[in-house]
Amino acid sequence: MANFEPDPKLKFTFGLWTVGNIGRDPFGGPVRESISPVEVCNLLGEVGAYGVNFHDNDLVPIDASQAERDRIVRDFKKAMRVNGLVAPMATTNLFSEPVFRDGAFTSNNARIRAYAIQKTMRAMDLGAECGAKIYVFWGGREGTESDATKDPIESIKRFREAINFLCEYSLKQRYGYRFAFEAKPNEPRGHMYFAVTGSYLALIPTLDHPDMCGVNPEFAHETMAGLNFVHHVAQALELKKLFHVDLNDQEMGRYDQDFRFASVNFKSAFFLVKLLEDYGYNGPRHFDSHAYRQSNYADVKNFAAGSMRNYMILREKARRWNADKQIQSLLKQINVEDAGLSKLTKKFSPANAKKLLAEPLNYKKLAQAPLLYEKLDQLTNEVLLGIR
Ligand code: GCO
Ligand code: MN
Ligand code: MN
Known about the structure:
The protein is α/β, with parallel strands linked by helices. The chain has two domains: 8-323, Alpha-Beta Barrel (TIM Barrel), CATH 3.20.20; 325-384, no CATH class. 37% of the residues are buried. The protein has an eight-stranded parallel beta sheet. A two-stranded antiparallel sheet has the order 5-7. It has helices at 16-19, 37-47, 56-59, 66-82, 110-129, 152-173, 197-203, 219-224, 229-238, 266-278, 297-323, 325-334, 339-346, 350-358, 363-366, 373-384; strands spanning 12-15, 51-55, 89-91, 134-138, 143-144, 178-182, 191-192, 213-215, 245-247, 285-287. The longest helix has 27 residues, at 297-323. It binds D-gluconic acid and manganese (II) ion (MN) (2 copies). One manganese (II) ion is lined by residues 138, 182, 218, 246, 288.
């Protein structure tokens, strides 16, 4: 029986803002004392996490002096060392301050756009100093409530220009960053630009350095919009653009809940884990979520440990599913092979087209191939429910 201890090879990470979340919501103030970055590292060390990520201002307050900044960074690096943590990812807070209330890179104000780029350069310096190699761009306030307020085509151009600038900055500084774009449909804006992972996958080939750029899909984000998260991740993986992933959970159609990974949608979480494991994803697995507002810090530890444990359990379930003889024989039956026809359809040529047109493919006969999907899904459920 597997013990489900967090496997360091899986690179389980948490943001300072996740386990450090103090439980504010639109209806009420904090319910937990805020804890320092060093205390977050100690907590993560205790639960056996692999790493810690941060926004610039999770670590260094926006108004800190150079001396304060240096002291904070020194203490943080020491706390990481002591707790055996690394910081694989860093990002910029481009959403909390009033200056960003109408966006950062897509703001209508050229001065604010310039400030956002400047702030990101400084945050990239900070991330690099802490060892980060992945830089996340989440469009916190990039969007609108009313499309009277911003030109959506201009916004795409502004966003692209900012990213091109920052790619050059990373190259010039030799930071070796890979940029990972994170889509979200809404919250905090009524409508956010680049609402789904696929929006960024379409943007990337239009950038000056497409090779440096990929995505950071988040379970809750596509799920909020009622979409199938696994399919979005699959497309990113297939394009070799899955640089990072934000794991959490969420009921469809609700507010941004950021629940513990696999606490609601076991089955989607299972197919996600199976996808990541079957296709050898080896980037960080980042839990971008937070404990219930009812929890104290002892329970925040349960939250963090539970996030990793759920992943480990689902990985074991995926192995079981892959090794299940009955499931595998059903899959074999479903996937009808025909080497001759596949050779014809693999690549177009006039000769292949001619041969294909001459094939006696009978739609009535083809429709008779059995698809025992009820059986297959039931077996899947039985694996998940622990009786198989
Ligand atoms: C959210 C987002 C953020 C980002 C974070 C890092 O819904 O608020 O998921 O948590 O992931 O800002 O870019
Ligand atoms: Mn989120
Ligand atoms: Mn996120």
